[in-house]
């Protein structure tokens, strides 16, 4: 156990670390919510496990309830941090009579985060799936993949490809084939997801 006398800095650091962890977890949970948005008007990159019958106002919609559970647990942990902050601030000299509220809220924050993370792992991450068809469609429509072609066809031709793709709505692959810039097999090798996410230049 930590002696409450002259340890207010320790309490503040512990609580601050829990708050920082909560903020990181909120960011992560919200990223999952955004990547799972859709299926028609969102990113639809992930398929979240169905953990409830559906939306009460939109039949058939799968709400990201487990990510929202983690968010709420983190909000509560941040609220605990405020109580710890006030308790630490109200100590006088080498004695802090606010030890009970500090300890209660430190353990409260820790419990919230522990339960929230365990629920997130068990009810979301374990059965999480990528929406491969949607991800492939996003990749096929992406103009940014033209960056991978820079070492092979140069900046000017890459910029021209991007401009035509933006203007016409054609996929980059189609424009490359129409301009006869690369053989199809080499183009597919260069623009493959694995090649574009692996260090180095694809040949």
What does this structure look like?
The protein is mainly α. The chain starts with 7 loop residues before the first helix and ends in a 7-residue tail after the last helix. The mean pLDDT is 91. α1 (8-35) runs parallel beside α3 (99-125) and α2 (65-89) packs antiparallel against α3. Helix content is 63%, strand content 2%. The chain is built from eight helices and two strands. Strands 1-2 form a two-stranded antiparallel ribbon. The chain is elongated and about 80 Å long. It has two domains: 8-131, Up-down Bundle (Fumarase C, Chain A, domain 2), CATH 1.20.200.10; 142-196, Orthogonal Bundle (Ribonucleotide Reductase Protein R1, domain 1).
Question: What key phrases describe this protein's structure?
Answer:
single chain; 203 residues; mainly alpha; Fumarase C, Chain A, domain 2; Ribonucleotide Reductase Protein R1, domain 1; two-stranded antiparallel sheet; 8 helices
Brief description of this entry?
The chain is mostly helical. It has eight helices and two strands, in the order H-E-H-H-E-H-H-H-H-H. The chain folds into two domains: 8-131, Up-down Bundle (Fumarase C, Chain A, domain 2); 142-196, Ribonucleotide Reductase Protein R1, domain 1 (Orthogonal Bundle).
